[in-house]
Each structure stands twice: as structure tokens, then as C-alpha cells.
């Protein structure tokens, strides 16, 4: 792994030069055409695209409830138990995120408040192929259900030998209402505009390839979207007290997701840097997804050596990694120094995959530096808020002059008159 010993200033400059671009005019043009065709021709366009891109002839898109039940019954007991444990922990964590709104009636004659309303219909994209993660189905569906979403519609590309059973089992366990076998940009268009078979949703969640991500960007406005998820990232801050084999294993756990994943170690110890670099090479040689992980390590990965602890945090905050492990003695002491990270893993035993599967906090997290301004997926993403106001005649009379004053300053006589129409004569 590349070891960088440059000054903090030079490393910060390198961070700010990295960009996470997602624009390819050719892909944009073909995605635009797919969206327009789905809008115009509905189910027929979905059938045509599924034949073209996935080589599957579909007569219907929706899986029956029996097919989901059969999938759940078909998985082995150990997998069922693991999914159940994950579900219980995700549920107990996300219950704490539920918002109830508030009523404020502190001022006489005035009632004001905020009401939290669940989004009615939500779409969930689950990628096809090897990136079909049952754990991600739980991470989206459980907060949606806790938020009170009425209808949760999952879409996933059809597969020649059937859709991944564990994904369908997770969907059933988490209470997904409908599963449609459609993928790519056409699935996103169907969710955004609706077709004869697929209901139009209010918000679309879930990762996917560049066609899916581009389509999500294009339908934003017609519907809401969760985020544009980039490749997985892990940042580790560690000193000499960390075990090189554990640090290397954690870096590789995210490197194996994608050739563009970013494994990063920041340390104050050149000894640890060298030992981790050696360990990464050793462990890569026996990793089944070696090719993917090696590309990520070699192209995106690096080890930064900075002598001061404060500088290590300054650099990591600038990187704003999706996952951040603190492998220093007394790791909780450093929570206050962390400004930008999707999810933080404190101490030796909080290895990143713990959070991917069973700890309970969400594993759908901001990537590509967006932890500077966004948060993990949570119950709050499946709700919206509205406000309410009620005044008595006396309470309005007390503030009427302020309203008419402000209205007339803004040149809005109609506003002022609406208030004056309430004056008791
Ligand atoms: N960030 C995360 O949490 C996370 C998690 C899982 C997966 N992912 C990402 O999801 C992606 C999965 O990609 P995938 O391709 O395996 O599955 P996918 O479901 O995203 O895309 C498959 C679909 O792409 C469409 N498609 C394929 N070629 C096309 C073409 N030439 N023109 C138009 N459409 C075309 C097809 O309709 C196909 O069904 C990966 O990039 C992976 O990194 C990210
Ligand atoms: N680490 C991924 C998010 O970056 C989530 C995941 C799913 N399965 C395993 N890992
Ligand atoms: Zn992972």
C-alpha cells in the first residue's frame, strides 16, 4: 500500500483535488431515453428493456406473496437466525430515531406545532448480481416500516436462475409489501412515474450501477431520492497499540466491495504503516475477491503518516469517510474531534463488518466526502414534517399590527387586509 509521509498541508491539498464525478453524456442520453419510453409506454417498455438488458422474457413483474414466503422457508436455519438477530438489533436502534413532533402552547391563545407524517409510498432498489445484499434490504426496509410507510415497493433485476433467495427472505422478514423483478434505469423510471403494474412512489432508496444512479438523479424532483451512493470507504486512525493484522483485515473488508472502494489508514507510527502494508499484501493473496480488493488498494488506498494526533483527525475530517475506525487507546475520548464521518467504530472490537450486519446502526451511509453534510439512512428519511398554527381572536389582535406592518413593507396589501378582516368591529 502506498505510504505518504508528506506534511499535513500537502495531504489536505490532495484530498481537496479528489472529486467524485458521475456524469457521462452518453450514459445520460441513454438513461433519458429509457425514462421517456417508460413514461410513454409503461409496462411494454419495461418488458422490452428487460429483454434487451437482462435477456429475460417477462409476462408479469410482481412476485407473489407465496414466492416471498417460499424464499424465507427455503433458507437454512443459521441464515434465518442471523437475519432475525440483525433485524432485532436494527429495529431496537432505529426505534430511538422515531420523531413524534411537538405542540407548543406556551403563549396564551396560541397553539403551534409540528406534525411528523410518514411518506406514503417508498421504492427500494436492490441491485442484481453479486451486489444483492440481504443486509441492505433490512437496513432500508426496517426504518421505513418503523416510520410508518404505507407501501414499500422493492425492485430488483430479474435473474435467469431466480432472484437471490436471501434477498427475498430479508424482504419478507422486514415487511416489504411488493417485489417487482425489474432493474436498471427502467425500474427507477417505473417507480418515479408508475406503470400499469408498478405503483408510483414518493421517494426512491437504494444503490445501483451508473445507469441506476444516473436515473435517480434525473427523476429527482418528480420524486425524492435518498442519496447517490458511491463506492464503499473505510478510514482507520490507529497508533502502535493497534494490531496490524486486524487493521489490514478491516481495510480489506471494504476494499472487496468495489474496485473503486477507498481503504485509508492514518497513523502516527511508521512502524504500523509498514506492518499494515505488509499484512494487506499477505491477506490479499488468500482473499476470494482479490482482484477487486487489490485494485481498490492499489488505485484508491493509501497510508498517511502524521506525527500529531490532532493532525490525524484534521486529515480524516477532510476526507470525511463513510466508515471511520478509531484504533487508539481510550477511543471514546476522540468522539468530540470527529466532525465528518458516516459511522464511527470505536476500539479494537468494533470492526467495520459488525456495523454492516448486526450492530444495529444503519450501514447505508454518505460516501465520497458527503459526510460533510449528510447522515446515515434512518427513520427520519422516511418521514416529512408539517406545521400547524391556531390563534384566538385576542392573540391575533395582539400581533396584528406587526403583521400588517411587515406585509406593507413588502408591498403586499392583500396580506395586510386578510389580517384586518379579522378585526372585531
Ligand atoms: N454503496 C452501496 O451501499 C452499494 C451496495 C450494493 C451495491 N452497490 C453498487 O451497486 C452496483 C451494482 O451494479 P450491478 O450492475 O451489479 O447491478 P444493478 O442492479 O445496479 O444494475 C443492473 C441493471 O443495469 C441495467 N443495465 C446494464 N447494462 C446496461 C446498459 N448498457 N444500458 C442500460 N442499462 C443497463 C440493466 O437493466 C440491469 O438490470 C455496483 O456499482 C455496486 O458497487 C453499492
Ligand atoms: N459496507 C457496505 C456499505 O458501504 C454495506 C455492506 C453490505 N454488505 C456488506 N457490507
Ligand atoms: Zn461492507
UniProtKB/TrEMBL annotation:
Q: Which Gene3D superfamilies match?
A: 1.20.5.1300, Nitrogenase molybdenum iron protein domain
List the GO molecular function terms.
Answer: histidinol dehydrogenase activity; NAD binding; zinc ion binding
Reactions the enzyme catalyzes: L-histidinol + 2 NAD(+) + H2O = L-histidine + 2 NADH + 3 H(+)
User: Which residues make up the binding site for Zn(2+)?
Assistant: 254, 257, 356, 415
Q: In which pathway does it act?
A: Amino-acid biosynthesis; L-histidine biosynthesis; L-histidine from 5-phospho-alpha-D-ribose 1-diphosphate: step 9/9
Which residues bind NAD(+) per the record?
Answer: 125, 186, 209
What enzyme class is recorded for this protein? oxidoreductase
Entry's HAMAP family? Answer: HisD
Q: What is this protein called?
A: Histidinol dehydrogenase
Native source species? Paucilactobacillus suebicus DSM 5007 = KCTC 3549
Q: Which gene encodes it?
A: hisD
Amino acid at each position: 500500500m502506498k505510504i505518504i509521509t508528506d506534511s499535513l498541508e500537502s495531504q489536505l491539498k490532495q484530498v481537496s483535488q479528489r472529486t467524485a464525478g458521475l456524469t457521462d453524456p452518453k450514459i445520460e442520453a441513454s438513461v433519458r431515453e429509457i425514462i421517456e419510453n417508460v413514461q410513454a409506454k409503461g409496462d411494454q417498455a419495461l418488458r422490452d428493456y428487460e429483454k434487451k438488458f437482462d435477456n429475460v422474457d417477462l409476462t408479469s413483474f410482481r412476485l407473489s406473496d407465496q414466492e416471498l414466503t417460499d424464499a424465507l422457508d427455503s433458507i437454512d436455519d443459521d441464515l434465518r437466525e442471523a437475519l432475525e438477530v440483525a433485524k432485532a438489533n436494527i429495529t431496537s436502534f432505529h426505534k430511538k430515531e422515531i420523531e413524534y413532533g411537538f405542540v407548543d402552547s406556551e403563549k396564551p391563545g396560541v397553539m403551534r406545532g409540528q406534525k411528523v407524517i410518514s411518506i406514503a409510498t417508498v421504492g427500494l432498489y436492490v441491485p442484481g448480481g453479486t451486489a444483492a445484499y440481504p443486509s441492505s434490504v433490512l437496513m432500508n426496509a426496517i426504518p421505513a416500516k418503523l416510520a410508518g410507510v404505507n407501501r414499500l415497493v422493492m425492485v430488483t433485476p430479474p435473474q435467469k436462475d431466480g432472484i437471490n433467495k436471501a434477498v427475498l427472505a430479508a424482504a419478507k422478514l422486514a415487511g416489504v409489501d411488493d417485489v417487482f423483478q425489474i432493474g436498471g434505469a427502467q425500474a427507477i423510471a417505473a417507480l418515479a412515474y408508475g406503470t400499469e403494474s408498478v405503483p408510483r412512489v414518493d421517494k426512491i432508496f437504494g444503490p445501483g450501477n451508473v445507469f441506476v444512479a444516473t436515473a435517480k438523479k434525473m427523476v429527482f424532483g418528480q420524486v425524492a431520492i435518498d442519496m447517490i451512493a458511491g463506492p464503499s470507504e473505510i478510514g482507520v486512525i490507529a497508533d502502535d497499540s493497534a494490531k496490524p493484522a486486524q487493521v489490514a483485515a478491516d481495510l480489506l473488508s471494504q476494499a472487496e466491495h468495489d474496485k473503486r472502494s477507498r481503504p485509508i489508514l492514518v497513523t502516527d507510527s511508521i512502524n504500523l504503516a509498514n506492518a499494515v502494508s505488509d499484512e494487506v499484501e499477505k491477506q490479499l493473496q488468500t482473499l476470494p475477491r482479490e482482484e477487486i480488493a487489490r485494485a481498490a488498494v492499489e488505485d484508491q488506498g493509501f497510508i498517511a503518516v502524521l506525527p500529531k494526533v490532532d493532525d490525524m483527525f484534521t486529515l480524516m475530517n477532510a476526507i470525511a469517510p463513510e466508515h471511520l475506525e478509531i484504533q487508539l487507546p481510550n477511543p471514546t475520548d476522540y468522539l468530540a474531534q470527529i466532525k465528518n464521518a458516516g459511522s464511527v467504530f470505536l476500539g479494537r472490537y468494533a470492526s467495520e463488518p459488525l456495523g454492516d450486519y448486526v450492530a444495529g446502526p444503519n450501514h447505508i451511509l454518505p460516501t465520497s466526502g458527503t459526510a460533510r453534510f449528510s447522515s446515515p439512512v434512518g427513520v427520519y428519511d422516511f418521514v416529512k414534517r408539517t406545521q400547524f398554527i391556531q390563534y384566538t381572536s385576542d392573540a391575533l389582535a395582539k400581533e396584528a399590527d406587526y403583521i400588517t406592518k411587515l406585509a406593507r413593507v413588502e408591498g403586499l396589501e392583500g396580506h395586510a387586509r386578510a389580517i384586518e378582516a379579522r378585526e372585531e368591529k
